[in-house]
Amino acid sequence: MAIDGRGVAWVPLSLAQSALAAGKVILAADVTYSTKIAIALVRPAIALSKVSEALWASACGPGGTKGSFAVPLPHIITAPR
Fold first, then answer.
1. Which stretches within the chain are classed as H helix?
2. Strand, coil or helix: what is 8?
3. Which pLDDT belongs to residue 76?
4. Spatial separation of the C-alpha atoms in residues 70 and 43, rounded to whole Å
5. What is the pTM of this model?
C-alpha cells in the first residue's frame, strides 16, 4: 500500500531498498524511528510436516537445527507440492 501511495510501512530496510532506490517511496522519519531486530526460528525436536521441514531447510539449510544463520532478505520460500 505504501508503494501505491495509500499508506506507510514499517519494514526492514532490506525489503524497501529497491523501492527507495527507484523513488517509489521515501523514508517517513529520521533514524530516531529505526530499530535493530533479530529474528529467531524455534522448532520442536520432533519431525515436522513436509511443508514445515521445507520452511526450516530453506531458512537454516538442510539439517540445520542449531546455531545462528544469516538469511538474506528478501527470501522467497517455496513448499514442495
1. 13-21, 50-60
2. coil
3. 44
4. 17
5. 0.46
